[in-house]
Every structure is written in C-alpha cells, then in structure tokens.
Write a structure and sequence with these properties.
Helix content is 38%, strand content 13%. The chain is of the alpha+beta class.
Amino acid sequence: MTRPPTAAQRRVIDAADPVSGRLRGTEAQLAALVKRGLAFRHPRPPHDHFLTPAGHRIREAEPEAPPPEPDPPAARGVFAARVGGEEDAPEAGPARSREVHSAWHGLLELRRMTNPDGATDRPCDWERRHLVPAAALALEAAGHPPAGPDLKGYRVRATPQPDAVAVHEPDTDALRACAATLEKAGWQVGEHTEPRTRARYLLASPRRM
C-alpha cells in the first residue's frame, strides 16, 4: 500500500491551484512529491511544478485525519467560479476580473498539459469531473454576468445526465450568447424548452473530439 503524504506534503498539495494544479513549496518538498509520483516538473521555463493525476486524486480525497493547525479556507485564497445565484458571491471589480482571468488561463494550461494532443480548444479531464464550475468559469471569463438576487444573468446547474450541465438565462439573446461562448470553449450545446414553464435553457457537455 502506498504510504500517504506527510502533513507538510499534504498542505502543499491542498494549497495547489484548484484549476491548473500548480504547486508552491520548498525545493525539497516539491522534489519529494515528484519522487512519489504526485507532482511533475514542467520541462519549459520557469519549470513550475504541477500535480499529476494521482496528486489531484489525493487533493480531492478527504484526508484520513485533519492535518495539524490547518489554514482556514479563506487564507488559502481558493478560487471558485460564479455559478449564479450564490448568496455569498464575491464582489465584481478589478480584483475579481484578475482572479477569473488567471483561473481561465490556468485552465487552458491544464488542457495543454493533460490533453493527449496538447489541445487547448477542448475540455480536459478536470473539466469533465467538475462540469458546473468548468462551464461557469468559461462563461464568467468571457464576461457574461452571473445571476444575482434578481435572477438576471446566467445560472449553471447540474443535471441528471452525468456529462451535461444546464445553463439558465431569462434573456433569450443572452442565453444564445452563452451558447456561443461555451461552443467556442469546446462544449457541445443544445437549446431546449422546459415543458412546464416553457422557459428556454441550454444543455452543455464537454466536447471529446
């Protein structure tokens, strides 16, 4: 059985960028994670370290025991895409725009590193495992406004289909603009009508080819 990472290694893994998996730590910590197959050193300058699929699995798994003196989530600066309708949504502004821009480009880098052909125009495995935040990030990065208390704007929600999300937007033109954005980001999109309310919505799934 593979020995679990130490508490210090687990903190480095937990603090990895949630989208790209980029790591920050001492040279010794990063080298130890590489040796254990949980990280790799990018061959191109600046030779940053990133989580491998095994490292991502450990990051997403619940730890067997809480590490000592964990940092509060707010202190880690964890980024979360706006899915629309959140009660505690981050304020819009230059700082949020920079965070979204950085997260989107981190996701494109993750596509380049993990898609077998290095394609950046097609979703990667991380997006297929995190459909709602992945679709929401594509929309927010393109400048679409997420829904607020007045419900104007997009809302991304999970569906019974394991590989699709629903995108709701009360304005028809804005809904179709969301569809164009997702298609450009590598998603297959279809427009549908809700039988009871007759409201239009999108079903979107990551394109594989």
